[in-house]
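Hello again,

I reread your note about wanting to compare the complex against the isolated chains. To keep things tidy I'm splitting this into two emails, and this first one only covers the full assembly. Below are the input lines as submitted, including protein chains and any nucleic acid or small-molecule components. They are followed by the predicted structure of everything together. The single-chain runs will come separately.
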Amino acid sequence: MTILKLAIRNLRGAGIRTWLNAVALSFAFVAIIFGQGMLQGMNKQVEDASTAFEFGGGQYWQNSYDPYDPLTLEDAHAPLPPVLDSLATAGKAAPILVVAGSMYPQGRLKPVLLKGISPVQKVIALPTAALGDTTEELPLLIGSRTAASTGLALGDQVTVQWRDADGAFDARDGRVVEIMHTSVGTVDIGQVWVPFATLQKLAGMEGEATIVTVAKGMRNTPVVEGWNFRTPGYLLSDLRQVVQAKSVGQTVMFSVLFLLAMLAIFDTQVLSVFRRRREIGMLVALGMTRARVIVLFTLEGALHSVLAVMLGTLYAGPLFIYLNRNGFTIPGMDTFGYALGDKLYPAYTAGLILGTTVLVFVVTTFVSWLPTRRIAKLNPTDALAGRGT
Amino acid sequence: MKNGGGVEDSVVVSTDKLVRTFRVGRSELVALKDVSLEFHRGEFAGLVGPSGSGKTTLLNIIGTLDTPTSGTATVLGERVEKLSPGQAAALRSRQIGFIFQTFNLLPVYSAYENVEFPLLLLGLSSAERRKKVTDALEWVGLADRAKSKPTQLSGGESQRVAIARAVVKRPELVLADEPTANLDAENSHKILQTMVGLNRDLGTTFIFSTHDEKVIRYLRRKISLVDGKVANDEARSPNTD
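Full-complex prediction:
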């Protein structure tokens, strides 16, 4: 406790030098939290949106279905097993039939995936209720990106073509009954959503499905023969890898910033041990062991991190709270390639803040300790005479 | 070797055939050679001699800041050469006060905080510290400069703060290494008067290292060192006029 008091007193006495170091360190501290918070927010936002609009609580894939191989799509459909059918009836699952096709907006060919989904499903957040419009023979739900790329508007009619179960081509005119806005590009770009039963009938695949998405939070998903269950973790792994790749670059940048701050602390400590030789000698003469003097000097250095955290909290705390609540727009966010939405909401979690605080404290303490090892070799009588080190 | 009773009790420091050598390059420098001395409680004694005579080396050994190459040094019942760094630090912390030529005040502390420092190391309560520090500053006549930083104090004032710091914990022994070397005659006189007063009022033993005639005049015992050996050891009447 005495050492702590002395360290605080020394830091106070060092005046502007203390604050300069603390400010430099606080920049690093704030930048790390800001950047990591942005990545965590990105991650959370992407995962939340993908879960809400696409993956739910996981998906059953028909055995032949491989989203990375379009050629498998022809065979990727099978009768809905009773266990999954009953889940769908209970509103706990949404079967989706995927059929390769194309549409002809303004007479131009556009390859698309036709996806049949029940208009009454509530498992994923797609506005499928619009597909319940019984006045249309083939109601179409498309995303805003598809609408923009094809020039289609609400109420437009467009010819849709597909290959049925027997490999024969068939076509109908459909009408755009809803244009949805979603941050999840994978349910929008090149996707045309139609009523489940209609697509089954048009494609000659009655009672069949390709994917069955289960409700979020559903546990004990049954094992179904001929169908593979893909957990949310599996489905989100691609997105997580993208975020992770971005975080590597950011970590390098933060490491450089942190290194500079640590260099300032190290420099201060080296200078301090050199300039305060007489003081070190006097501290020993007054009854401190050299080990305690080392602890004192190390603590002085380490306390810079405490000051940095306090300073950082003071100037960055309100900013973080604001950003966390209101988010912010990054130009070109839609081109990031994953479901970010219009605004990015950084996530400053307790774990992130505590973790960063501990990291800054531990590294600062270590860097502060390194130069003080010289004190152990310092002869107090030399130190008192201003010699040594 | 702990003190026994009777006359031995009054022995604060004793050295027996003390030798201290230093290696300088390839040669060996003998700083102290067969120094055998005893200092009794309440003494006001000085080690006198030119530069390089071994005064500071002897003072450092008595202050447990250094250890002898051979021979023994017993300080307040403790054998210096056998003390661990922690034990030596504890002894200095409780029983020994230091005064240096260059004052060695802790620069970022106020006069009050400098004097308070040894008490913090002793773990005294805030109230106890306040009383003792106030008393010490009053002894040296600096109660009104308690808040001043060392840079705001004159040389004489700084040395008086150093004296207050040395005596605030009421040590048995105060070691003063050339305490007046950086002071003018008037300040030296004031400082020495202060120390004489403390020696008289508190019974503290003072051992000086000096070649300053102003200090020598105040000594009641003068030990002359020449080339690391005791050349003369005489009791004397101080002349403080």
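For quick reference: The longest helix of chain A spans residues 232-275.

B.
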